[in-house]
Amino acid sequence: MAKAFFRLQKFLRRTQFLLFFLTAAYLMAGSLLLLQRTRLVIQQGSRGTAANQALPVPNGMVGVGIVDPRTLQNPRPAPRLLVGMDALQEPALDQQHSPRWLVSRNSELRQLRRRWFHRFISDQEPMQTAGFKAMKNTAEHKGTYVGCFSDDSRERTLKGAVFYDLRKMTVSHCQEACAERAYTYAGLAYGAECYCGNKLPAAASKPEECNSECKGEKGSVCGGVNRLSVYRVEELRAGARRRRNVIYRGCFRAPENLTDTFPASLTQPNLTVEMCSEFCSKKEFPLAVIRGRECYCGYPTGRFSLHDGADGLLCSGTHNASGAAEGKYCLVYQTPVQDTRCTDRKFLTTKSKVFVALSSFPGAGNTWARHLIEHATGYYTGSYYFDGALYNKGFKGEKDHWRSRRTICVKTHESGKTEIEMFDSAILLIRNPYKSLMAEFNRKYAGHLGYATDRNWKSKEWPDFVNSYASWWASHVLDWLKYGKRLLIIHYEDLKQSLIPKLKEMVEFLNMTVTEDRLLCVENNRDGNFKRSGAKQKDFEPFTQEMKDLINRYILTVDEALRGRNFTGLPREYVPR
């Protein structure tokens, strides 16, 4: 018995030593790995790479904005992870024959969300000494530093245009943006927000209260929490004037009483378009109206909606004298100033009782529809995913959890019974599959505003993309028709053609009421920040006959399903070509 006990004791001692040795080796290996990663991060920092670049970035969006790991749940092609995280492999394109190819990675996503959240929160912590650097850094910028001013989301200090860039905001970027739009002042807040305007309050805040570092410019101050770092950019406007666009809106019948219709006016001999536009820009009005020697400034309203244009010949004499038709007609120009009557947005004050989806196939105009809904209702829209580029451009609902019910509706490209039935109702946005496929292919390879190269279109990737995504276009609509509880069908082409009537339908479906002036403001700002500049014409037909035959079969199937559910069929332009 004693001999057996002695052997056991000897074995345990050896085991104890072995465990100690393995623990020490484990700790040493971990320390070496940590030192190696730390050195890698320091090397990145020395090149000027932002800390938040160690995050997932989809193809075509590197350098655009922070991307939350929820992007990995996006049924679009999966992103890659940059330095500091293990790469998630992108599924082969030819395996993506439906939106169900996406594999769940719940534990990884939770950890990535946690890392992103802590990184984002730490970036928001104000610098203690940044406020005192404000005057030192202003010499490096083109504008003149005015001071630190208080700002309130309910009553903005600068009431003009608004821009966001959570990743690359700089003082110069904000100054140039405001100067190009004919504003006198540029103000920065929270390190990433830019506000423009022509008027400032009399009293300023303490300089040290502006203490947030600019997201894209280390050592420079971009306001603070409810504080604006304000610059005068008037001296920049002379150079920016060459880049500013004054857009001719057309000839219109003048309202009966122009003084009552337009809040500001000017009478000037030898009046020019530039003089009238400059005057209205300083008054912060988006419209400049000319009738003879008279200049009027204002907004599109019910009295003057700009819906019924007149023959340009009727205005041929209005600029030189009292008007060819006795002053009954006037010339209308769009100034560089943004119509801000509908730009204020916020989260719902109480949780929504109805969970509404804004559903579409990728490339069908979901982002544009969100822009219209947000500006019409005054409330943010949410998203099932996270797109840092959209968040940077003012879609603050991107960062809110999609189940929070603090947004008016939630963007989704999902289909399938489970994903659809969790919503109480949905606006289903449908676009011509030919246009949708091309738009999504452009986004995949060149971001929200770019175009894929001819090399992309002529590669094997394009036919593979069409073969897998065309069926998804059809299955997406069919699934929502089958499982959706309460649907409003909106065709992208109808929304584009008849904006206000279709937008009214969407707003009423969301159980909201809006004024006519607000809808006219939305129409005046209809394009938003994510409209590709022009249609890049290709010198070849991207769709082969085989692709057309495939897509046309899906078009007929979807059209039949819509009519079978007593909805309006697809627009005639969808008909097989």
From TrEMBL:
Residues 142-234, 245-342 form the WSC domain. PROSITE patterns: WSC. GO terms for molecular function: sulfotransferase activity. Gene3D superfamilies: P-loop containing nucleotide triphosphate hydrolases. Keywords: Repeat. It holds the Pfam family Sulfotransfer_1. Belongs to the WSCD family. This is WSCD1 protein. It comes from Lophotis ruficrista. The lineage of its organism: Eukaryota, Metazoa, Chordata, Craniata, Vertebrata.
